[in-house]
């Protein structure tokens, strides 16, 4: 016969007689009374209201000006011209005039904006080849199937960069002009340094080849440009040869998809080293010379240019300050209601049985 097991019987599964297993450890639980809860509610309401007011004042100290140029000024003829796809390769320039009433002090950022353009559609976001954009030679000539139908051009050459995201790259260009009593002058903009550091140095690279004497055009030989592009990827910036290929900053900015259908993307930053822009953008009359290329009528969209200053909190966005103010007011209202209920029914334990 086998040896009988120790502690056999109905008590075999009983936990050990220890403070931990028998739940005899000392414990603390808060007593939620009016004297402890109500001060917390009032304190949270004051904190939210003060924080919301502070953020609102900060946001109001920034300036933002939006100019919709879809049909504005002489751009109306360009809008009509872009309705016909046969005119896609024909250039069209227009001018929009506007006024800045108050000086934009400090750093000024120049954005282009699109309305009703859904970059957040799943199929659209997937239509790209990150292996190609990072400079892998294998992906350069054998793009991912995710890029379909923008994977090969009409000649059967692999497209670089492939996919719907790159194919729909925004290609309007702008020249901002300041009109003062002394005459008109072009507003200088920094067109580099507008991307995220990780995008520029990690996620986007040109293909590497052993022969360092090859030009960028030779590196991309055997590939085709996206169907709706006017230039190949190695010739996007004719003024700066180091800003071409997959490291072109306008391309990188576009390839970071927006989360909402109405968005703006950075185009340039004011160069404050040149007079009279050392303190910012002076008040006065301005015009924007636009190379009007990007069609918007197919998705019932609109285009705009945006001039904005920023603070430590960012650009002009009232959502978070208003959210704090509304939350603080709701907490304060709830605290007042709880105080009235406690005063009438619960103070000193009176009327609780009723």
UniProtKB/TrEMBL annotation:
InterPro entries: CDC50/LEM3_fam
A single cellular component GO annotation: plasma membrane
GO BP annotations, alphabetical order: phospholipid translocation
Cellular compartments annotated: Membrane
Transmembrane segments: 37-57, 322-343
Keywords, in A-Z order: Membrane, Transmembrane, Transmembrane helix
Similarity remark: Belongs to the CDC50/LEM3 family.
Name of the protein described by the UniProt record: Cell cycle control protein
Organism annotation: Oncorhynchus mykiss (Rainbow trout)
Gene from which the chain derives: tmem30c
């Amino acid at each position: 016969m086998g040896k009988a097991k120790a502690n056999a019987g109905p008590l075999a599964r009983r936990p050990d007689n220890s403070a931990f297993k028998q739940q005899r450890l000392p414990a603390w639980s808060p007593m939620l009374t009016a004297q402890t809860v109500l001060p917390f509610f009032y304190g949270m309401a004051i904190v939210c209201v003060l924080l919301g007011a502070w953020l609102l004042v900060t946001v109001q100290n920034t300036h933002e000006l939006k100019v919709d140029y879809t049909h504005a000024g002489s751009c109306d003829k360009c809008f009509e011209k872009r309705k016909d796809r046969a005119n896609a390769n024909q250039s069209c320039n227009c001018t929009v005039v506007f006024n800045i009433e108050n000086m934009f002090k400090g750093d000024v950022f120049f954005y282009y904006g699109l309305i009703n353009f859904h970059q957040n559609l799943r199929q659209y976001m997937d239509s790209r080849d990150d292996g190609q954009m990072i400079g892998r030679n294998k992906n350069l000539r054998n793009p991912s199937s995710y890029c379909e139908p923008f994977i090969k051009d009409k000649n059967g050459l692999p497209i670089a960069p492939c996919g719907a995201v790159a194919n729909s790259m925004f290609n309007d260009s702008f020249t901002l002009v300041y009109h003062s009593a002394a005459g008109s002058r072009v507003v200088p903009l920094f067109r580099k340094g507008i991307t995220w550091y990780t995008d520029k140095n990690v996620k986007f690279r040109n293909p590497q080849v052993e022969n360092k004497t090859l030009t960028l055009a030779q590196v991309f030989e055997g590939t085709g440009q996206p169907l709706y592009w006017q230039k190949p990827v190695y010739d996007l910036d004719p003024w700066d040869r180091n800003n071409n290929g997959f490291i072109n900053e306008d391309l990188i900015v576009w390839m970071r998809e927006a989360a909402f259908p109405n968005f703006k993307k950075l185009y340039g930053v004011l160069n404050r080293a040149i007079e009279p822009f050392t303190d910012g953008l002076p008040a006065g009359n301005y015009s924007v010379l636009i190379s009007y290329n990007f069609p918007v009528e197919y998705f019932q969209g609109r285009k705009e240019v945006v001039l904005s200053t920023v603070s430590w909190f960012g650009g002009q966005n009232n959502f978070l300050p208003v959210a704090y103010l509304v939350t603080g007011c709701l907490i304060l209202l709830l605290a007042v209601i709880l105080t009235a209920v406690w005063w009438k029914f619960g103070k000193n334990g009176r009327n609780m049985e009723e």
